[in-house]
Write a structure and sequence with these properties.
By secondary structure, this protein is an alpha/beta fold. The protein has four domains: about 150 residues, P-loop containing nucleotide triphosphate hydrolases (Rossmann fold, 3-Layer(aba) Sandwich); about 200 residues, Rossmann fold (3-Layer(aba) Sandwich), CATH 3.40.50; about 50 residues, no CATH class; about 70 residues. Helix content is about 45%, strand content about 20%. The protein has 23 helices and 14 strands. The strands form three sheets. A seven-stranded mixed β-sheet has the order 7-6-14-8-13-12-11. It has a five-stranded parallel β-sheet with strand order 2-3-4-1-5, covered by helices on one side. Helix 3 links the parallel strand 2 and strand 3. Helix 15 packs across helix 16 and helix 19 crosses helix 22. The protein is globular.
C-alpha cells in the first residue's frame, strides 16, 4: 500500500468480476448505472485500466470519459458533453467513469446526491454508461438514504479487492477540499452558488524583501615612518629630551594610501508573482494583511500539486497561460494552530510524528480496520518521501497561535524538521503582525502580498460575475452569461469609482468579494465607508461564531482550514 514502486496484479476473483461487467456492458442498452467498489480506486488503478483497455478493444464503439467530482458538478459535466459533441458521437456510446463522490465534503455531497435523484429521468434519456467508482461498500448507504430513486434504477453493483499502491484517495480528498472557493468570513458565498477556485482565481503579486550585504572599498591616508640607523639604546650615557630623541629616531616619508573593505547591510525589494515565488524558492514565507489571499493561494497550490500527483504528470501546469509551478511533489496542507493544540497535550510531539498521526488518521478513514498499515510502515513511507525530497508542505502559520511561548517552541521544532529534511519544499503563510514577533531564519525568502491593481480587480470581478451567472442561470447560453456579467462588472466598477474610500477597499480580495456579494444581492454599494465596514463585519463575525462553535465540538487531530 505504502510503496510507490509496487507491482501488483488482478486477483482471480477480480478477473471474474471484470468478466461479468464486460458481459453486462455488451448486452445492456440505454442508460446503464453501475456501482463499482474498488479499494483506493483511481484512473491508474489496475481494475480501471483493465476495463478501459477492454472497452477500447471491443467491437462496440465506446467513447470513454473520466469525470472527477472534485473538479466539477455532474450536472455541468453532462451539459459539457452536449456542447462538445464529436463528429462520430452519433455512432459511439458514451461511458462516464465518475470518481471521487465519496471524497466530497458533506454540503457538496448532499447537493450532488439531490441532483442525481431529481435528474434521473433526464439522465436516463441519454444512451450512456455511468460507472460510479467508490472506495468502500459502506458508502452505498449514502445513495440509499440521499438518492433512493436513483439507487433503485441501478443496473449492477460490482466489487473488487485489488488494492491500489498509490495515494489516490488522499489526493482526491485533498483536491475536493480545495476545489471550491472558501472565503474566510463570507458564509454568503456558499449560500449563493458553488464556485470553483480555478474559475475565479487571479494570480497575485508580492514584494520580495531581500536582506543583502554590500561591500565597498574606501581609501585612508597615513604617514609612513622609518626607524633611523641609531636608536636611543645606542646612547646610554647621553641625556636627551623626548623631542630630541624623536628627531633622531624617526625620518618621515611621503603620504601613502591604504584600501579598506566596508560591509553595509541593507534591504532591497523586487516585485514578483506569488506563483514565481513558490516555484523558484524551496523555502518561502508569504505575508499579508487579513483577506489578502494568503491561504487561498496555498489552497490553489495544494489543489494543483495534488492534481498533478494524481494524474502522474511531471510538472505542475496551471491557468490559461500554462504557467509552470514546479515539479511533481506530494502536497500536505495544515494549520499550525492544530499542531499547537496537539503540542499542549503532547509536549514532546515533533512535526514528523504529527505527520504520522495525520497519515494514520487518513488511512483509517479509507481502509478496512484489519488492513490498516502499522506505525512502522507509515513511518517508513513518510521517511521515504521526505528523504527523496518529494515533499511539499503548506502551513498556515503564526497568527493562529496566540501564545508567544508556543510560537517560539513551534519555530524551533520547525527549524529542526527543515534541517532534517532540507531537500523538500516548504511554504508558509502568516499575517504580518503575527510574523514580526517570531521570524523564521534567513533561509526563508519573504514575500509580502501587494494590493490588487485595477486590472486584477476587473479580472476577478468578471470571472466572479460570469461564474455566478452561469451557476444561477444554467439554461442561458454563453452570450447571455457574458452580457449579464459585463453589466454586473460595469456597475460594480462604477460604484467604486464614485467613492475613493470604497475603491481603496476593493484592492483587498476578501473585501472585493463582499462588495460583489452586496451588489449581487441587489444592494447599492454605500457611499459612506462606515456603512460598508458594517456590511463587511456582519458576515465576518457571523462566520467567526459558527467556526468557534464548530471547533468547540471537535477534537480532530488535524483539520483542513476552512479559509
Amino acid at each position: 500500500m505504502l510503496s510507490q514502486e509496487y507491482n501488483y496484479f488482478l486477483t482471480e476473483a477480480d478477473e471474474n468480476e471484470l468478466n461479468k461487467l464486460h458481459n453486462l456492458l455488451e448486452l445492456a442498452s440505454g442508460t446503464t448505472i453501475v456501482f463499482a467498489i474498488t479499494p483506493e480506486v483511481s484512473p491508474q488503478h489496475i481494475v480501471v485500466k483493465s476495463l478501459h483497455e477492454y472497452l477500447e478493444n471491443t467491437e462496440e464503439n465506446f467513447d470513454i470519459y473520466n469525470f472527477f467530482y472534485s473538479e466539477n458538478s455532474f450536472h455541468n459535466f453532462l451539459y459539457s458533453l452536449d456542447d462538445n459533441k464529436q463528429e462520430n458521437s452519433e455512432t459511439e456510446r458514451k461511458v462516464v467513469m465518475a470518481f471521487g463522490i465519496d471524497q466530497l465534503p458533506t454540503p457538496r455531497l448532499v447537493k450532488e446526491m439531490k441532483q442525481l435523484n431529481l435528474g434521473r429521468e433526464e439522465l436516463f434519456g441519454r444512451d450512456l454508461v455511468l460507472i460510479l467508482w467508490l472506495n468502500k461498500n459502506k458508502f452505498l448507504d449514502e445513495f440509499r438514504e440521499r438518492a433512493p430513486d436513483f439507487w433503485d434504477w441501478r443496473e449492477k453493483v460490482v466489487e473488487f479487492e485489488t488494492r491500489n499502491p498509490l495515494l489516490y484517495p488522499y489526493l482526491e480528498w485533498l483536491i475536493a477540499e480545495n476545489s471550491y472557493l472558501k472565503m474566510s468570513g463570507v458564509v454568503q458565498v456558499n449560500r449563493q452558488v458553488d464556485i470553483f477556485l480555478d474559475q475565479v482565481y487571479v494570480s497575485l503579486q508580492a514584494q520580495w524583501r531581500q536582506h543583502i550585504t554590500e561591500t565597498s572599498e574606501t581609501n585612508t591616508t597615513r604617514i609612513k615612518s622609518v626607524i633611523a640607523s641609531q636608536s636611543i639604546s645606542d646612547k646610554p650615557d647621553e641625556t636627551i629630551t623626548i623631542l630630541d630623541s624623536l628627531d633622531e629616531i624617526y625620518d618621515c616619508e611621503p603620504l601613502i594610501e591604504d584600501s579598506i573593505s566596508v560591509a553595509t547591510n541593507k534591504t532591497v525589494t523586487q516585485r514578483v508573482s506569488l506563483s514565481q515565488a513558490v516555484r523558484d524558492n524551496n523555502y518561502s514565507v508569504i505575508l499579508g494583511a487579513p483577506g489578502a489571499g494568503k491561504t487561498t493561494h496555498l489552497r490553489y497550490l495544494a489543489l494543483h500539486f495534488a492534481k498533478t500527483k494524481r494524474d502522474n504528470k511531471e510538472a505542475v501546469i496551471v491557468g490559461e497561460e500554462q504557467e509552470e509551478l514546479g515539479k511533481n511533489l506530494l502536497p500536505v496542507f495544515f494549520r499550525i494552530a492544530d499542531f499547537a493544540e496537539q503540542l499542549k497535550q503532547q509536549p514532546n510531539l515533533t512535526l514528523l510524528e504529527y505527520l504520522r498521526q495525520f497519515y494514520r488518521q487518513w488511512e483509517a478513514h479509507f481502509q478496512q480496520d484489519e488492513e490498516i498499515a502499522t506505525e512502522e510502515e507509515v513511518a517508513e513511507f513518510f521517511l521515504l518521501i521526505l528523504s527523496q525530497g518529494h515533499f511539499l508542505m503548506f502551513l498556515v502559520f503564526f497568527y493562529d497561535v496566540f501564545d508567544l511561548k508556543y510560537r517560539k517552541k513551534i519555530v524551533n521544532l520547525y527549524f529542526h524538521f527543515v534541517d532534517e529534511f532540507p531537500h523538500n519544499k516548504f511554504v508558509i503563510t502568516s499575517r504580518i503582525a503575527g510574523y514580526s514577533d517570531v521570524q523564521l531564519s534567513s533561509r526563508f525568502a519573504e514575500f509580502t502580498i501587494e494590493d490588487m491593481d485595477s486590472e486584477q480587480v476587473e479580472r476577478f470581478l468578471y470571472r466572479w460575475c460570469h461564474t455566478v451567472e452561469k451557476a444561477q442561470q444554467p439554461d442561458a447560453n454563453e452570450k447571455q452569461w457574458e452580457r449579464k456579467a459585463d453589466e454586473q462588472v460595469k456597475d460594480i466598477l462604477q460604484s467604486t469609482e464614485d467613492n475613493e474610500g470604497v475603491k481603496r477597499l476593493s484592492t483587498n480580495p476578501l473585501l472585493l468579494t463582499i462588495l460583489a456579494l452586496i451588489h449581487r444581492n441587489g444592494d447599492r454599494l454605500p457611499n459612506r465607508r462606515v456603512k460598508l465596514y458594517e456590511l463587511a463585519v456582519q458576515p465576518l463575525t457571523e462566520d467567526w461564531h459558527i467556526k468557534r462553535n464548530r471547533s468547540s465540538r471537535t477534537s480532530s487531530t488535524l483539520s483542513i482550514l476552512d479559509a
